[in-house]
Design goal:
CATH architecture of the largest domain: 3-Layer(aba) Sandwich
Distance between the termini: 44 Å
Largest sheet: 6 strands, mixed
Structural class: alpha+beta
Order of helices and strands: EEEHEEEHHHEHEHEEHHEEEEEEEEEEEE
Number of strands: 22
Helix content: 10-25%
Length: 359
């Protein structure tokens, strides 16, 4: 295991980048704590895999340094970084048995035969392939081959870090849940530093101690699932985390009041003078429908019953607002106002969260 330090790290695929827009990964400074599980979360093209491949040594950064336990490994090849990496699509040796595929990283390091046998059996049980150890990998399904790749990545106990690049893409949904659970169990048991790339918020939030949310080549927030939900530091985090995501509305803010298209909304806390594009963000969980005079005037467009609750899609001046209502709630046509719980309101300036003024 290792603490991974990124110092002024940035990368461009262009030979002579001249502006920030030329960088696939914009400048990043961060310490990845020894033994923690991280998820890199974001949409396709945001820089997740670029960052992972810089850490593993498959890419050399355009600028900055990478340190493992304060040792500079920026120029070190992958083989000298003592990491295990599992890729999006399975990489197996078709002519080998499942057993020999799993044993390969251990035998390659001259591990004791008895240890290899026991460790392979342990990993095979973890990935549900203990009955297939003597089968050749050729002819196995894509999800079976990916389980072999996962197992081969996890078989070594002495690695500095385990890196996963969207490893469950080809795995069936039920097995995804089981393998995520096993990865979490492995992390708790052995304390490996783990970094897991995904565009699936469920995978990220159920796997990681800390989620690293990326947008347009930039890390916009690092935090626990609770922090990402309650205080999204960027409007993208609010939009990307949650189902449905955070409502984001143009606003004018004056002290402890926001004005949205002429309607005043109490914020419950004060803010200073704000510049740029100002927006109010509130998650559907902190909204409710009303028939009174308070709140935003809306028109209900449709109601979706998803079992645990209802999602109400309402229109406010051409902008959709999502409201979560209890499963048994009676949604009537005269409910033409949406009220916000002030404890769930966040204010943003140029997409970044503004901290309220301390009284």
């Amino acid at each position: 295991m290792a603490k991974i330090t990124l110092e002024n790290l940035a990368h461009s695929y262009l030979p002579n980048p001249s502006s920030e827009d030329d960088y696939a990964l914009k400048e990043l400074n961060h310490d990845w704590a020894d033994g923690e599980a991280y998820a890199l979360l974001g949409s396709s093209g945001c820089g997740k895999s670029t960052l992972l491949n810089l850490i593993s040594g498959l890419l050399h950064p355009s600028q900055g340094r990478i340190l493992f336990d304060d040792k500079d490994v920026t120029a070190a090849p992958t083989t000298q970084r003592n990491i295990a990496q599992v890729f999006q699509f399975p990489v197996v040796y078709d002519t080998m048995t499942v057993h020999d595929n799993l044993a390969f990283p251990l035998r390659n390091r001259s591990a004791d035969a008895a240890y290899v046998r026991d460790r392979v059996q342990q990993i095979a049980e973890m990935i549900g392939m203990e009955d297939m150890l003597n089968r050749k990998a050729r002819g196995l399904t894509a999800d079976a081959k990916q389980k072999i790749s996962l197992g081969r990545g996890m078989v070594r106990e002495d690695v500095n870090a385990l890196l996963f690049d969207e490893p469950l893409t080809v795995i069936d949904p039920h097995m995804k849940w089981e393998l995520r659970t096993q990865l979490k169990s492995l992390h708790h048991e052995f304390g490996h530093t783990m970094i897991y790339v995904t565009h699936d918020q469920t995978e990220a939030l159920t796997f990681a101690d800390k989620v690293v949310v990326m947008y347009d080549g930039r890390v916009v927030q690092i935090g626990t699932p609770q922090q990402l939900f309650e205080q999204p530091e960027h409007t993208f985090v609010g939009y990307f985390i949650g189902s449905p995501g955070m409502n984001v509305l143009d606003a004018q803010v004056d002290g402890d009041t926001a004005v949205l298209a002429g309607t005043q909304i109490p914020l419950g806390k004060g803010f200073g003078a704000l510049s740029g594009k100002v927006e109010l963000g509130v998650r559907p969980e902190f909204t409710s429908l009303s028939t009174g005079d308070e709140g935003l005037p809306v028109t209900i467009k449709r109601v979706e019953d998803v079992g645990r609750h209802k999602i109400v899609r309402a229109d406010f001046n051409g902008t959709e607002i999502n409201v979560l209502a209890p499963e048994g709630a009676d949604i009537s046509p005269d409910m033409n106002r949406v009220v916000f719980d002030p404890t769930g309101i966040n204010i943003y300036s140029n997409s970044w969260r503004v901290a309220p003024k301390v009284a």
